[in-house]
Amino acid sequence: MITIATEVKYIEYKFEDLKAIEINLQDILIEELKYGLSNDLVNSI
Amino acid sequence: MNFKSNDPADNQEQNSSISFRINPTSHGTNPSQTPTVEWAKISPNKVIVATAEKAWLLEDTDSSAPENSTTQYFTQSMEGAGSIETTRQLLDGAIAAARYTVNSDVRPPALTPRRWVWRLAGAYHMTHPVPKLLKEAARRFALEGHSTLAEWATEKAKEEAGHDLLALRDIKSLGYDAEAVVKELIPSSAEVMMGYFTRSVQDDNPIDCVGYSYTLERMALGVGEEYIQKIEALFPPGVNATRCLRTHSSVGADAEHVEETVEMIAGLTSQERVRIARACYETALMSFSPAYNGYMTDEKLQPILDPLKLDQSLISEMSA
Hints:
The structure holds 2 protein chains of 2 kinds. By secondary structure, chain A is of the alpha+beta class.
C-alpha cells in the first residue's frame, strides 16, 4: 500500500483580531452545579 | 464564571499570536501528523476553535471579522480529520460557549424534598421516550448507509433502557404515587428538551441527536459524590431517591459513555463534527437557560403533591 502524504496547513491566529475567549467547561460545570442546572432538571439521557 | 478575555490588561498570553496546524484528511498515516486544530461555526456569529488542550470562543464573526484575517478563515467550513483530544475540546467548547451566551445569574430556588420530586418528574419525562427515539435514529442512520452512527444509536438505546424506572423508583421512595406524579408534573424545560431531541431524530439526517446525547452525558460528569450526598442529606435516613442521579453522574456509567461517544465522533467527517458541535451548543443553551415558565417553588408544589402521598405502610412494603 502506498500512502500519499497530505500537505499540512499552518494557520497563525492573532488574538487581537477579534474577541477570542478561552473557555473551560469544567469550571462552568463546577459553578453551575452548585445550584443545579439553570433549567431546573436533572441531566438525564 | 471563569472566562479569559482578550483584553491585554487581563491576559498577556492572548495578546500574542498562536499557530495552529490543520490535520491532513487522511487518517492515521503518521503519528507525527497529530491534528492540532478543529473549529466549528456554532451560530451565525460564534465560532469555537479547539486544540488538544484548550478551546476558544470567537465572537462577532459575522460582521466584524477583518478581511483575510484568521478569524474569517475559521468562519469557513472546517477541513481535516478529527482526533479524540481536539474533538473533545471542540465539543466541550461548544457546551461552555452556551453558558457564556446565556450569561444569566438567575438560579433555581433551594432544593427541598418536594422540589427534588419535581426534578425527578423532569428526569422521567426526559428518559421515558429516549430508547424508542434512539431506535428510530438508528433506523434512519442505517437507511442512509451510516453504519457507525446506526450502531452508536442502537447501543445507546440499550444503555438508556429502564432509566425512566429509576426516576419512578426514586419518587416512590419519597412516599409518592410515582405514576400519578409524572402524570401531574411535566416540567416545561423537559418538554422543550425532548421536543428538540424528537425533532433531531425525525430530521432527514438525525445527527443532531448525537450532540444532544453527548451534551447531557458530558454535563452529567460534573455531578460527583459530593453533590449526590448533598441531595441525599435532604431526605430522612434510609430513603434512596438518588438512583437516577447516580446513574447520570461521574460515579455512574456516563463517564464511559462520554469516552466512547467522543471517540466515535472524532472519526466522523468534518461536516458531521461541525453539526454535532452545533447541536451540543443548542442543547447546552436549553440546559443553562432559566426554567421557561419560572421555577416551581415548594409552596406551589405542596398542594399538588400532598394528595399524591402514599400510605406509609405501602412505602415500608416497597422499601423491604
